[in-house]
Amino acid sequence: MQNQITWAILAGLTLNLNVLSQDAVEQQKESPQAPVKQSVSRLLKLANLKGTTTQTDDSSVQTICFICLVNRSAEEIGDYGDKLVQKIDAYIAESDRCQLVKREMAIATLKECKLNLDDLNVPANQHVFAAAMARAEHPIDYLLFATVNDVDRRNKGKAEKCEHRLELELVNLKTDRANKVWENFHKGRLEEIK
After folding, report:
1. Which residue segment(s) compose the domain that 175 sits in?
2. What is the mean predicted confidence (pLDDT) over 103-125?
3. Is 97 found in the same domain as 160?
4. By CB neighbour count within 10 A (0-12 exposed, 13-18 middle, 19+ buried), where does 122 fall?
5. Are 88 and 110 contained in the same domain?
């Protein structure tokens, strides 16, 4: 009798291990949008911008200016970069605590201020840009920067570039505090983003 119970317990453990390994396989097959959504979700949570507003006025809605996506990967990302930008925009728009400024308005304002995208890495230039946006009746609370990098993996001591890393940095213009998150995703999954 005790042997039957032991075998039943072992069979139960085997069944549980099979269920766990099935879940692991499903996680590997998850959509390529998942890293983008996870990154945006974590970033908004860090900045306390995730969720819904409880007020009826717009005072708790924060304006985000998504500046650009920089490709620091060894590969050209072309149209896939545009798709990443669209996904990031869409996931930010899901939060009713945030609103996005039109990218065209931001680019025009940068030209008016005689600033390049790289100039926005300097806090003083960020404030010049934000003031110009406010004068154009498009005040902003946050700047968002996105970067795609390669991630090196070691295989028997040899470096292989098999993954990309999406990095998102959200800069609060009132406090100059930056929140940064990143998520790795497999090379080739970038092409699957629809």
Report:
1. 31-192
2. 93
3. yes
4. exposed
5. yes
